[in-house]
Each structure stands twice: as structure tokens, then as C-alpha cells.
What does this fold into?
Amino acid sequence: MNKIIKFKDLTYKYTDNDESSTALNSISKEINQGEFVVIIGHNGSGKSTLAKLLNALLLPTSGDVYIMGNNTKNSQLLWEIRETAGMVFQNPDNQIVATVVEEDVAFGPENLGIESNEIKIRVEEALNTVGMLEFRNKAPHMLSGGQKQRVAIAGVIAMRPSCIIFDEPTAMLDPAGRKEVMDTIRKLNKDENITIIHITHFMEEAVDADRIIVMEEGQVILEGLPREVFSKVKALKSIGLDVPQVTELAHELIEAGVNLPEDILTVDEMVMHLCQLN
It folds into this structure.
């Protein structure tokens, strides 16, 4: 498979008043084209620092990050790197710059020097992809949180990235807004074959991932399929992380002597297995 992202011996240290703290400590990973990777870890584990390094908002203290083979340390490739790997932040208000939705979505392509007729096509396609075409002439500040985040995503899509990095994009949203955004992310991955790197602290958002990476103190401590990772309930709880509610319920039932698999991820699976018990 084609590797869209590779980082090798990646270390990042924050320096404050001549004192440094290590946010990432010599980690190495590869991410394939079309993959849906979820990164979890509590605050301070290094996951958001990693996101900024993948988008070249930060540069490694040591080690290297390659986006489609381009090293993020090469300043001449900065726009090419960010065109390949777009980023959506936690607060959409920090990413929306225009007073009309379609103008905001056009902002990125305009800065890439895209021809105006092509920009119009990209804006329409991007808004249609995120289900916001009917709001093209609206003011962003009149939209709900979930709608604003979808506009921010459309702005990245219009730049035609191969990969989108989402840094806790649902953290400030209510359940309805979170569902809107997660439906959009899944659609981008499955229908558009866009590589997704999704950083979240909502465990239910990781259930559909191709791979979960668990971070702790700047290191990758666990990695695998959602069923593999979330079946390790005690290990995750020992570092202060939760598991999907239905997985935790299954774990508690197993502890109580109920014969259930340890890798249940959804309510439907739970109902099926409970119905099979005599």
C-alpha cells in the first residue's frame, strides 16, 4: 500500500524559560493512503503535538516527518505539504475567516493560486460533500456548531488534500453536532478515499477506525484494530482512558460471570450476544 505519512524517530520538546519538556519521544509510524486512523490519549499525551507536526505547524526537535515523501523541514515544500495534508481544528471559529460560507470555503484554494472558475467548482463540490450547499450564502456566525465545523471541513476539502488531520473536531459540540461531523468524516474516508487521522477523547468515535493508536507520555503504548485495543479495558483504564460504554458494560458482565466476548463494540452486538445466551 502507498504510504502517505511516515515519521521516524520523531521527538519534540517544548522550551520555556530555558527549561524543556518532551512532548514526543522518538516515535516512528507509517500511515497508508485511504486509512482511517484514530489517535487517543489523555491531555498531555502528545497527540495534539503530533497533529501539528504532521501539518508542519511545528518542526521536529529531532527525527523526521514525511508527507508523500516530502520532509516537513524543507520550507520550500511547506504549501505542497499542507495541500496534501489539511488540518481541521477543535474550534471552527478559529478556522473560519470570511463572512459568507462560500467565500470562506474559497479562501484556501485562492491562497493556492487556483483559477477562479476552478475555485467555484471546488467550492460547490466541497459544500455538497459535507451537506452544506444550501447554506452557501449564509453567514457562518448564524450556523450551529456542527454546521460551522462542516464548513471548516469543506474549506479543507476544497484544497483537494489526500489526507485530513482532525484535532479533536467534536470536542466543543453537542451530541447532534458530533454526529454531523463524524458522519462527514466517515463519508470522506469511505466515499472519497481521503486518509483520515482523527484525534479524539470520545471513544465511540474510534469504533469504526481501521487502526487505533494509544499515546501516553509522548510514546505509542498500544496499537491495533478497535476490537483489539478496546478489549484491553484494564490497561486503558490504568492510564486514565475510557472505552466505549457498551464495551465497558460487557467487561463488567464478564467479571460478573456472564459468558460474553471481550471485544463487543456496539449496542447491536451486545443485544445479539445477550439473545444467544440460554
